[in-house]
Design a protein that fits this description.
It is a single chain. The protein is an alpha/beta fold. The chain has two domains: 23-243, Aspartate Aminotransferase, domain 2; 248-345, Aspartate Aminotransferase, domain 1. Helices cover 41% and strands 15% of the residues. Helix 2 (32-46) packs parallel to helix 8. 46% of the residues are buried.
Length: 353
């Protein structure tokens, strides 16, 4: 998560909300002002036309939106499809909901999936497929072609698409974010999950949402109510300010993270890591096999500990993102949502590698 300050305009909005006495329980499924702002944003940016009264549930971050959605959709014996490497919560969310995860590999360097492998993952037990675009940890941005192929299979097997789009504004090299819910036939069989955490650098506010057809939303709202009652009231009202920011903010966001990505990528290229260039989000997966061999280390986790000892730089073991440890044994994930001083210190630390 970022080690730099959150936007002043949002901190001021949060303070004003507290002073305005927005300090008690909210409407359980989200304050009206925020749901209306979400609906406007989704229509303008994502091409999703949703009813703020019947099709939006405000949650305690995207993580709660995901588990509430899984609990609302999945029955014991169902299966869910998860692309790997994956954000760590997806598999456990499915298991907690009673589903069996089926994994489909994304393979470097471009993190593409095999269409035949994906097709074979669908069957009569498939309840949903989870899509994270832009992707954590790979930085993959799913193309329109890929999303259309997924949509075809969802329609064929009467399955849902559950999409985590929390990095939708963090894009590089001319990439465009596409929401699968905007594709033909997918509006009523998609749950679109998002949050203010990453776009606005307020990961601790815990304000997210799930957008779905009314019949699905009614179930998500029930689960959400029993899980958390409601997301923090003052931060919900401050989030309206975030969603109303102009294009200048988003251009600045992309420029900042593009420079950060390029800086860290060049740092890794100049070391003995072999990085894969991300197209979105703020992570880089890098191959570390040469360094592991040089250090005489065979376990990914042990390598990460050794890297901290030698350089003071902490990374996440690649094994955290796969269903089988061997798939990620020679990979680590770097996060570059850091201030320039931090990024420069990493470059200095890695000069000796």
């Amino acid at each position: 998560f970022p080690d730099f300050g959150s936007p002043d305009i949002l901190k001021d909005a949060a303070k004003k909300a507290i002073d305005a006495e927005w300090n008690q329980y909210p409407i359980t499924f989200g304050e009206k002002e925020l749901r209306e702002a979400i609906a406007r944003k989704e229509k303008a940016y994502n091409g999703i036309d949703c009813d703020p009264e019947k099709e939006i549930t405000v949650t305690c971050g995207a993580s709660e939106a995901m588990i509430s959605t899984m609990m609302a959709l999945v029955n014991p014996g169902d299966e869910i499809i998860v692309f790997e490497p994956f954000y760590e919560n997806y598999g456990p969310d499915g298991i907690l909901s009673g589903a069996t995860p089926r994994y489909v590999r994304l393979r470097p360097p471009h993190w593409e999936f095999d269409e035949a492998e994906l097709k074979n993952a669908f069957n009569e037990k498939t309840k949903a497929i989870i899509i994270n675009t832009p992707n954590n940890p790979t930085g993959k941005v799913f193309s329109k072609y890929e999303l259309e192929k997924i949509a075809e299979l969802c329609i064929e097997w009467d399955a849902y698409a559950v999409t985590d789009e929390i990095y939708e504004h963090i894009l590089y090299d001319g990439e465009k974010h596409i929401s699968i819910a905007s594709l033909p036939g997918m509006e009523k069989r998609t749950v679109t999950i998002n949050s203010i955490s990453k776009t606005y650098s307020v990961t601790g506010w815990r304000v997210g949402w799930a957008i779905a057809d009314e019949r699905i939303t009614s179930r998500i709202r029930k689960v959400h109510d029993f899980f958390t009652v409601g997301a923090p009231t003052p931060f919900q009202h401050a989030s309206v300010t975030a969603l109303n920011l102009g294009e200048e903010y988003y251009r600045g966001l992309q420029e900042h993270y593009t420079q950060s990505r390029n800086h860290v990528f060049e740092t890794l290229e100049g070391s003995k890591f072999k990085p894969y260039r991300p197209k979105g989000a703020y992570y880089i997966i890098a191959d570390c096999e040469d360094l592991m061999n040089e250090y005489g280390i065979v376990d990914n986790y042990d390598f990460c500990i050794e890297l901290i000892k030698r350089t003071g730089v902490a990374v996440v073991p690649g094994t955290s993102f796969y269903s089988k440890k061997e798939y990620g044994m020679h990979q680590v994930r770097f996060c570059f949502s850091k201030k320039w001083e931090t990024l420069e210190n990493v470059r200095k630390a890695f000069k000796g590698l």
